[in-house]
């Protein structure tokens, strides 16, 4: 199998796994509170990423990163996974899965707003058009096409879903300044999140009501939202002959996710979600054109 086919197989595998995450979030939240879920999944993901580096004989890279810059990685860990996933999962807890997951994809749009002052980039006309079109899609989804504030199922949930995009875009920009390889940096963040996660689970009552369903859901999310899937995706991009072609596979994930949301969660997909999604994706693609 040549590199191009390897990249396609790895990319599609990552997309298929990511498409299950919105459904997994909602199922997991039936059995666990948000903090317990984030903490358990973070520990699982840390184990996966450390095992990956051990298998590659690169554990010294992780230890060097943690020894040289422990405070930096602790701060980054507090942002991702801890803060980001607490905000995101709380939004999922308050909103229908179809709304939370589709709005979450607008992080790529807000990235351009943050990149302008942080990276010294100028906002172009296409960026402004993309922002307007993308957030029109958000309004349609949130109000189920009525454009009435009273139609919003949870104002707090909507605010948190939007804040999660801001946090993730900010984290992404900060991550571009890291000199370590992406897998080493991510492993360092998850390892540094473990003391906080374990302390909460041990002393915050996170394990008191733990069921096998909750544990299974947390392990699944730790594996396939935070850990294994990231490795598959990064390997796909590193092997790709045409990176843009592989990167665009990511837009299959929310489509497949909507199908799973309806089939598994029995959550009817509102026509407004489809319309909003049909605005958000072209807005993101417009921003990426000639980027």
UniProtKB/TrEMBL annotation:
Q: How does it sit in the membrane?
A: Multi-pass membrane protein
User: Which GO cellular component terms, listed alphabetically, does the Swiss-Prot or TrEMBL entry include?
Assistant: membrane
Which SUPFAM superfamilies does the UniProt entry name for this protein? Multidrug resistance efflux transporter EmrE
Q: Which UniProt keywords apply?
A: Membrane, Transmembrane, Transmembrane helix
InterPro entries annotated for this entry? AA-Vitamin_Transporters, EamA_dom, EmrE-like
The primary location reported for this protein is membrane
The protein's location, in the record's own words, is: Membrane
What family does the database annotate?
Belongs to the EamA transporter family.
Question: This chain belongs to which protein, by name?
Answer: Permease of the drug/metabolite transporter (DMT) superfamily
Whose protein is this, by species?
Answer: Aequoribacter fuscus
